[in-house]
Amino acid sequence: MKELILTLIVSICSAQYLNFFVVTDIHYDIAYQQNYSYPYLCHSVGIDGEKLNPVPTNDTAPLGRYFCDSPMTLAALAFQQMKAVNPNPDFILLLGDSVAHFTSTLLNQQGVYDKEADKNLVLSTFTKVTQLFTKYFPNTQLLPVIGNNDGFSDYQIPEGVEGTNYLKFLYNLWSPLIGFMTDTFMKGGYYASITKGGLNFICLNSNYFSTHIKLPLIEADEQLEWLRSQLQANRAKSIIIMHISPGVSMYGKGDPDWDNDYVTKFLSIVTAFQSKISYIFAGHYHFGFFQLVPGTQLSIIVHPSVSPFFGNNPGFRYYTLNGNTQDYIDYTYDLNQTGWYTHSFSQMYNLDTLNFTSVYSMLSKNFTMLNQFLARSYGLDVEPGIANEYVWNLALGLNYTTQQSLGRSVMLCSMQYLAFSDFQKCIGNVRGLLRGRNH
User: For residue 407, what is the enclosing H or E element?
Assistant: First the structure.
């Protein structure tokens, strides 16, 4: 009955004014130590399977370090800035990965791996991150999704009784902030909801579609059929949100992030119901870019992370939708210069709508603009004199001097194609020359 009620509610009209934040990949590191540096993940303890033997450094970094996850001070700083921008947004999207990359594998002070203790650290992390929302935005609706680092091991979905208890914990923690949500959350961590203004949201658990999951999973197919049924039944447009998008990683060899069968099924659904979809939002990659959805006018909009784990500057995004005018502002915190910087979509591209097809056309014709886009995506354009060589090595794993043609193709092809086979054809099937990394 709840799902039936949701599908009958008419969504927000196009003329209504909306403003909201998108924050993702906070990766709050409960073990962060300000006097330990990135070779040790900024930890005073090791992690299971790695011989780090951490030693302290002479300098301290209370607000975080590049290549480490977020201390609470950095996470709180982001929320303070969000509140300064708008203390009463219509809603906030949390696109996954509240938990740091290695929380589930931390060794204790005695150098011993205690799996049950680390599970409690994961749950404690969720609680502390949620408390940031209730502290800074007590009256704002939150719409969260589950990320690949949010379980008890990377990319793995808790199963059985443990899985039920895990989802029950998140339901009890999040549901007061979400409000209405379909009962599918307790089935697989995905749900549909509606904002106070009447906007439909379809919130996916994209972990089920990941190439890192043991396939096939009946839950993955069930979730996609549920997505189809939601879009088919909804009278008005919906926004789809997820953590991992169904595209190809831009770094190195361009590894696919979803299993190919699920990419095909997702594209089939989205293409069939494109007129019922307003936006598709994702996180995961730690930098802000986009992926065109072939055969449609839609794009998957990927967002910058709070965590500086991949050498990026921390950031979040603020959207303003006003009738036929759409814009966002990226807020980037420069860890070197210790200050906030902003860029708006409209100023960067001289567009008054979020038309990423037009942006792609601009980038494909202008190599200088493409390099600026890459640096800006990582929040590194705020660094004085940042070199293309550094950005390319960091973001693409490629040499700017000797691999320009390849790098340009990787960037543009990953924005143009979601299916890995199409991506390979686009870059000339040079996969063997490249290398990848995990998020």
Answer: helix 404-416
- pLDDT score of 215: 67
pLDDT digits (tens, 9 = 90+) for 360-401: 999 999 999 999 999 999 999 888 778 999 999 999 999 999
Bridge partners of 292, per DSSP, are 299
Domain 2-433: top CATH class: alpha beta
Query: Does residue 253 have a pLDDT over 80?
Result: no
- With the CA atoms of 33, 36, 37 and 39 taken in that order, what torsion angle do they form, in degrees rounded to the nearest 10? -100
Q: Tell me the two tokens of residue 27.
A: 């990766």
What per-residue confidence (pLDDT) applies to 3?
44
Distance CA 83, CA 86 (A): 5
CA distance linking residue 40 with residue 68, whole number of Å: 9
Q: Is 399 helix (H, G, I), strand (E, B) or coil?
A: coil
d(CA 67, CA 350): 33
Beta strands in 254-336 (DSSP E): 277-282, 289-292, 299-302, 315-322, 325-334
Contacts of 93 (CB under 8 A, 6+ apart): 20, 21, 22, 23, 24, 143, 144, 241, 281
pTM here is 0.93
**Dihedral angle sign, alpha carbons of residues 148, 151, 154, 157:** negative
Where do the structural domains in the chain lie, given as residue ranges? 2-433
The lowest-confidence range among 14-28, 60-74, 281-295, 388-402 is: 14-28
